[in-house]
Amino acid sequence: MINDDGRRLAFHVTPGHSPAIVLDAGGGLDSSYWKDLVPKLAAATGSEIITYDRAGLGDSDEVPGPWKVESAVSDLETGLRELGVTRNVILVAHSQAGEVATYFTRANPRLVSGAVLVDASLPELYTDKEIARLVAANKPQVDAAKADPSTKENRQLIATAENYAPMHRAYHQAAWPDRVPATVIVSEKTPFDGSPEDARLWRDAATAFAKAGPDRTLVTAEGSSHDIPIERPGLVLNEIEKMATAHR
Predict the structure, then answer these.
(1) Does the keyword field hold Hydrolase (predicted)?
(2) In this predicted model, what pLDDT tens digit does every residue of 209-224 receive, in sequence order?
């Protein structure tokens, strides 16, 4: 358990050599999302593997008020520092964790050697028009969470929704550092399988991100839903292994 600004955060470590591989799951998901991939990744790379529960998820403490990506970045910075990880990190970020990875890498470009962004939320998606569409689409789920009995999961959903629009308007302006290579794995079905327009925009954002800087590779997980690590673990493992090998 790591302490950051009064928050207790759960980190899980599989010992190994550098580079350290840090796995960060998507919105509403904790470190258990990676439970099947961790032993395979450790065996394939020999690297130190780190998973953790962001605040409000798994065994980590909740934080009152709207979800703030800055707090999530601070939590990860503190956790890695306390674990003695001060160089050569490979970030693996799924879905909402792409936002944490982007801001973390911007703040720590010399700490992060590379990233594998797995159907990640990327800045290019969040035009004003798309933010409005997503806020409207998510409203019934958020309203239901407010009406239902309060649970950790519901509170986390509500916290994320509270400042969704301003946070993503700011995120739209965030740029990935050119010095940090990234592999972008995009799913065929995306998180918006029921909305062809949003699915197209999600895939277009991944393509635009990959083209926007040097040392970026786009990989399509054909036939996969948003849960690429569950449905195509071999693909994710292979791309992480390639990135880790390049920075051993």
Answers:
(1) yes
(2) 999 999 999 999 999 9
Count of H-run helices and E-run strands, the chain: 9, 9
CATH of the domain at 79: 3.40.50.1820
Q: Three-state DSSP class for 120?
A: coil
Three-state secondary structure call for residue 49: strand
Most distant CA pair in the chain, distance: 50
Residue 106 lies in a domain: yes
What are the DSSP E strand ranges found in 151-191? 182-187
The total number of structural domains in the chain stands at: 1
| Residue found under tokens 């796995």 | 23
What does the alpha-carbon distance between residue 107 and residue 26 come to, in Å, rounded to a whole number?
Answer: 20
| Residues contacting residue 221 through CB under 8 Å, at least 6 positions apart | 119, 185, 186, 187, 188, 228, 231, 232, 235
**Domain that residue 6 falls in:** 2-123+177-246
Cα Rg of the chain, angstroms: 17
What's this model's pTM, rounded to 2 decimal places?
0.96
98 occurs within a structural domain: yes
Given a contact cutoff of 8 angstroms between Cβ atoms, the answer to whether 202 and 186 are in contact is: yes
Kindly report, residue by residue over 5-36, the tens digit of the pLDDT. Answer: 888 999 999 999 999 999 999 999 999 999 99
Beta-strand relationship, 11-14 and 182-187: unpaired
